[in-house]
Design a protein that fits this description.
Elements lengths: L2 E4 L4 H18 L4 E5 L11 H10 L3 E3 L10 H4 L6 E2 L13 E5 L5 E6 L12 H11 L8 E6 L6 H6 L3 H4 L4 E4 L1
Length: about 180
Amino acid sequence: MRILFIGDIVGRSGRTIVIERLPALISEWKLDLVVVNGENAAGGFGITEVIYNELIDAGADAITLGNHAWDQREALVFIERAPRLIRPLNFPKGTPGRGAALVDAKNGKRALVINAMGRIFMDPLDDPFAAVERELAACALKTGADAIVIDGPAGPDSHGGTALGETRDVVRGKALRLAR
């Protein structure tokens, strides 16, 4: 499966370049799955429903969030009707939205997209390692999904995301881990 992950789309200029160029990249590179991080897409602070729809219309299959997920208050509401908008899995129980989604790829296969946020210099959250392990156990590669992508936003450095790459399934090559 050919996968493109675009990290941290920031503001109008970041959105414009992605929206203008993504359709051609999908075609030229024969991409099967496109995952983008949109937590800073609204002027560096969160995402709006209009921006979410623009990115989906441009060809994004899933959009991940992070610590700026709720900077635009409307995200708390529209995330429930945006099945491909994925907030961190380890946000507290009862948080709107989902931390993982099984997404239909362009080639007809299914990809599990997981988002788990690190905790160093970030808000105190549930254990991202335990949360990812639970999700991987519930939807294993080949039996539950054809591909697994893990976005690990981890603050000022990528140590949290890198450590997520050391979870059992990622080390065994059963998932693709992305550290930002």
